[in-house]
Amino acid sequence: MNIFTKMYDACMRWARHKYAVYILGFISFIESIFFPIPTAAMLAPMALSTPHRALSLAGLSTVTSVLGGIVGYLIGALAFESWVLPAIEEFGYLPTYEKAVVWFADFGVWVVLIAGFSPVPYKIFTLTAGALSMAFLPFVLASIIARAAQFYLIGGLVKWGGEPMRHKLRQYVDWIGWGFLILAVIAYIIYKYV
């Protein structure tokens, strides 16, 4: 079954769409506020489909993500109790939010660097930074560094790998996809029953 190869081919087609760059910028912006799908999920196929533009796509993702983070910060600062907290509870992010509050108390601005670079939901930290009245300039600087590091790492790897990487990845995408799916099921079972 080559379901992942078909998905990969579809992603490559979508990544070359004439509005793909605008969609990437929009997704990167809203992902920093509320959108559940990470920017990397769109940046990686777009960079793979056009490796010569990988670094400029990383730059676009960085700028729009940081701008979204600033909006998230402002929403957290101005509408946390009335708007953000009910949404966090509704979408099941309350435990993540509570951890974020503890991490902000323990690590300060460093937590923004970690959240902006890692797969931890960055949006929780943008909203929490505003709600906790974190100093704005350190928040923005940490966001720029972290988001740029993540997106330029993706863009740089794709640019370095170029066209051969795209073809090699397509060759093994079904093995990779099934492997990740099996690992996810095992992790879920361990988490749920152990």
Strand content: under 5%
Unreliable sequence segments: none
Helix/strand/pairing category: mainly alpha
Please state the overall shape, judged from the principal axes of the Cα atoms. Answer: globular
Through-space gap between termini: 31 Å
Written as H for each helix and E for each strand, in order along the chain, the element string is HHHHHHHH
Q: What percent of the residues sit in helical stretches (DSSP H or I)?
A: over 70%
Pfam families: VTT_dom
InterPro entries: DedA_domain, VTT_dom
Protein name: VTT domain-containing protein
Domain VTT: 57-153
Structural account:
The protein is mainly α. The chain has helices spanning 3-15, 20-31, 40-49, 54-90, 94-107, 110-117, 122-131, 136-193. The protein has one domain (3-193). It contains eight helices and no strands. Helix 1 (3-15) runs antiparallel to helix 8 (136-193), helix 3 packs across helix 8 and helix 5 crosses helix 7. It is globular and about 50 Å long.
